[in-house]
Amino acid sequence: MASESEPHDSPVQWVNGHIRRYVESDGADGHEWRGNTILLLTTIGRRSGKPRRTALIYREDGGRYVVVASKGGADAPPAWYLNLAENPEVRVQVGADKFPARARTAAAEEKPALWELMAEKWPDYNNYQAKTDREIPVIVLERS
Length: 144
Description:
By secondary structure, the protein is an alpha+beta fold. The protein is built from 4 helices and 8 strands. The protein has helices at residues 13-24, 79-86, 111-121, 124-131, and strands spanning 8-9, 32-33, 36-44, 51-61, 64-68, 89-94, 97-105, 138-143. It has a 6-stranded antiparallel β-barrel with strand order 3-4-5-8-7-6. A hairpin with a 2-residue loop joins strand 6 and strand 7 (97-105).
């Protein structure tokens, strides 16, 4: 990634607090949330060029990590997705494990199985998709 400065965390207050606890405890506090596992994703802002960090539900699939760019079913995609579409080189933290990764949108042929994997853990993804005409992307994060 282009910048090693301290990331700007999500402006959503409760997400920001969750990220702080996750970072300060090296993943011991915050990796698990409401029966799900959470990773921290740091992208580079497409306009600012500065690191931006958010917390996302993930599932592991064959050594890679899968997340959903749902934004709760909003018609516009989340900023982190727009950032990684511009620059797919990201940083990931899963518990105490921190590593660089390359992000990509799941291909059409692999998306249904990955969507099912994610919706199995967070069924609201199906509700989010029903709320919008936007095709909600599934993102694959692979260690680089």
